[in-house]
């Protein structure tokens, strides 16, 4: 009977992980990294024209407000607050927006620092063989910056997988939301939440092995 109870709890949580937790993590990470790259490039732009300065100020404000407020509060504002001004979003979309903005703000600092860590001589090497600024960045700078940023970005993704549990508060039926539903029905909170923790742990162990493999691969090729 005990084994049956464990299986009955595991299956909905695994389903929630497959259908919501993992897709939510991947989509949010891709969107967040895209935002992070754009913000980082804007901030390292040396142009002094008014539009460039305005863009830098907006990016700085964005980073400050995202890093200075809890992710849970951001989720509540997007899902529960925006309907007050006529903007109602699906729970899954709300979670993607919140997580993407959060990843974008934090990853932008990592990406910016990684780009600046590439020696200036690499830029000069690209220019010396006739490459434009954009070609030099794409072909020479970006791969080296990625190697520098990879460990931190990988850890960010692993942290994001765990942070998706916050999506339960906006009714996304992900892993932890399933655990809450099951626990509210059988009142076996310790067992059910321990099972949820075990699933998160297994996922993160797998991601940790993948991270090690990717870092080793990049070290060989760059």
UniProtKB/TrEMBL annotation:
<keyword id="KW-0472">Membrane</keyword>
<keyword id="KW-0813">Transport</keyword>
<feature type="transmembrane region" description="Helical">
    <location>
        <begin position="54"/>
        <end position="79"/>
    </location>
</feature>
<dbReference type="InterPro" id="IPR010065">
    <property type="entry name" value="AA_ABC_transptr_permease_3TM"/>
</dbReference>
<feature type="transmembrane region" description="Helical">
    <location>
        <begin position="20"/>
        <end position="42"/>
    </location>
</feature>
<feature type="domain" description="ABC transmembrane type-1">
    <location>
        <begin position="18"/>
        <end position="211"/>
    </location>
</feature>
<dbReference type="Pfam" id="PF00528">
    <property type="entry name" value="BPD_transp_1"/>
</dbReference>
<dbReference type="InterPro" id="IPR043429">
    <property type="entry name" value="ArtM/GltK/GlnP/TcyL/YhdX-like"/>
</dbReference>
<feature type="transmembrane region" description="Helical">
    <location>
        <begin position="192"/>
        <end position="210"/>
    </location>
</feature>
<keyword id="KW-1133">Transmembrane helix</keyword>
<keyword id="KW-1003">Cell membrane</keyword>
<dbReference type="GO" id="GO:0043190">
    <property type="term" value="C:ATP-binding cassette (ABC) transporter complex"/>
</dbReference>
<protein>
    <submittedName>
        <fullName>Amino acid ABC transporter, permease protein</fullName>
    </submittedName>
</protein>
<dbReference type="InterPro" id="IPR000515">
    <property type="entry name" value="MetI-like"/>
</dbReference>
<comment type="similarity">
    <text>Belongs to the binding-protein-dependent transport system permease family. HisMQ subfamily.</text>
</comment>
<feature type="transmembrane region" description="Helical">
    <location>
        <begin position="85"/>
        <end position="106"/>
    </location>
</feature>
<dbReference type="GO" id="GO:0015184">
    <property type="term" value="F:L-cystine transmembrane transporter activity"/>
</dbReference>
<dbReference type="InterPro" id="IPR035906">
    <property type="entry name" value="MetI-like_sf"/>
</dbReference>
<keyword id="KW-0812">Transmembrane</keyword>
<keyword id="KW-0029">Amino-acid transport</keyword>
